[in-house]
Amino acid sequence: MIVLVTDAGRQRVDEMKSLSAVNWIKENRLTGLTGADLDEAASKIFLVVNGGHVRQAFDRLNSGLPEAELEIKEVTRYIAPNYWERYRDRGDNRPYFLVMSPSALYVEDPDEAPAEFASETERILKVFDDQLGPVNADDPLDPDTKEALLKLSEIPLLRDNLIEFIQTERVRSQLKEAATRIRNALQSLRFYYEKQLAARGVHPPFANSWEQLQERRYENLLIRLQKELPRAYHNALLDMSAHTNSDARFRGMLRPTLNGIKSMVQDAVQREIDTLLESYGTEYWDDRDVTYDNLIWGSSGIEIPIKRILFQVELTMQDAVSQFMPQAANVVTDELRRTLEAHEIYTRLERASYGRDYRYSIPGESLENGDLREAFDALTNRVDRNYRSVCRQATMYELMKPERSVNFRLEQAEQELALNTNERLLDAALYGVEAVREEMAANAPQPANNSQTAVAETETEAVPEADVQINILDEPAPQTEPDFDISFLGEEKQEAAELEMSYADMLDNLSVKVNRVFGDIINDLFSDDDLLPRLRRLFWLEATKAERDYNNYIVKPMLKQHDRNLQDSELREAMEVDLESVSDMEELMRVWEGLHKLEVSVAI
Predict the structure, then answer these.
(1) Is the dihedral of CA 423, 424, 430, 436 positive or negative?
(2) What's the mean pLDDT in 448-465?
(3) Edge-to-edge, what's the strand order for the sheet holding 97-99?
(4) Residues 417-422: contacts with CB under 8 Å, at least 24 apart
(5) 433-443 helix and 422-431 helix, angle to the nearest 10 degrees
(6) CA–CA distance, 55 with 11 (Å, rounded to integer)
(7) Backbone phi, then psi, for 123, in 5-degree steps?
């Protein structure tokens, strides 16, 4: 028996607190009950609304309007769907009791009741005078007044209903509820054992012969292998996914290898640059016509084709990335092999073959009529081969984007600017079009003012022409200062003339800039945030395809061959160790029969 007390409160039943209590009752007392059984269990729940002494709540809940009792209906609906209709006469023409606790407690035991209940009772006498009738309002303890207050409070009605329920209904409802729970428990147990037997291919009533039971044991073993072998491979992939299938973990696994690949690509690019520029060095004249001036100033007179050099180095960089990037695939596929070995996938598969030398074929592979080991290795090797190609292609796709192409940058720059020197071409490839445009604008000569130009022209006109002087052979020629001075040790050094950059320094400058151009491209490629997540997703695509082919081309054909040869004595002898015990099946069958007998024969 449960007395659920809620509060009328501020003009409404405290619905939230009531529903919390009702949900607790449903989870702990009414669980598993439906229909008539739920109605029987709900009969021992008495809903009491405290706060009838508040006149506004009293009038509202006794108005008889449907919306006035909406909150209480919501509460009772959660106890049982038909609680409102079934127990509508439990209270005073209501399925609940609207009680006044202060007045009832005071008139029943005025000595022990709180002092404030006396004033509350006097207030009730004044507020509810129309409900009490002709009683002595000055003395709440007058017998007539006391009886009227108790009747209005509905406390005696609640007590009488509880006593009647305890005396007549409680034991009967408890027995009915217990019978329902026992019946439901027996049904649940029987259904559980039926499900276990159905998974083994055995269905009641049990009229199977010994031969049929033995046949079923072998078939159940094949069914179990058909579930366990694919699940083992899938669990291995889940284990590897837990260690690698996130961007941070995948990046951490590949970072050392990617750093090594990056270094090898940079070395290949630098070697190619050095090789190409060496052919234009001062020590390689190649039978060219070298003048005295070329030797003095360090210029070989050779025009350096910087565009061809950039194009050749870009091809070398692309070839190096294509050659070295598959090494990153080896790291991931080696991790897959280790995971499969740790989960003993091939060992499980070999044990499930029971020594039968079946032949397997993998579509798309060169394997035809191979044994189990060859078929398993073919699938793993295909993941390795395909993923190496995927790594190469995905990285080359990122590398071939226009923003990483040197020739694309030069084409854009030449469309907008006049790049007449190798330095300008390299600056455009290295810094971009805008930086070169700003530099050219800064170095352009400023036009002179008109006044300054006029003064310069006037001064030029005022300068008289120099007299022509004819020197006779005997007279010494006038001494002129040479453009350069050759001094010996101990002599005062003359100020040297400003020379242009030597050819060797120019080659070094070109080498530095070309290396920087391709170094920036390589750094941008291997620090790309899109490359590694793409490689990770592409690997799991290959691994999922391998799992699918493992199930379709190895597990299923092997078990299908087992099923065809199930009558073979050698195969049955090999499978005997993994067969389910006969006693286990017999135990399940006996338990089901006992539960069925209890449910049918025992009167509840």
Answers:
(1) positive
(2) 52
(3) 2-7, 45-50, 97-99
(4) 422/304, 422/306, 422/510
(5) 130
(6) 10
(7) -65, -40
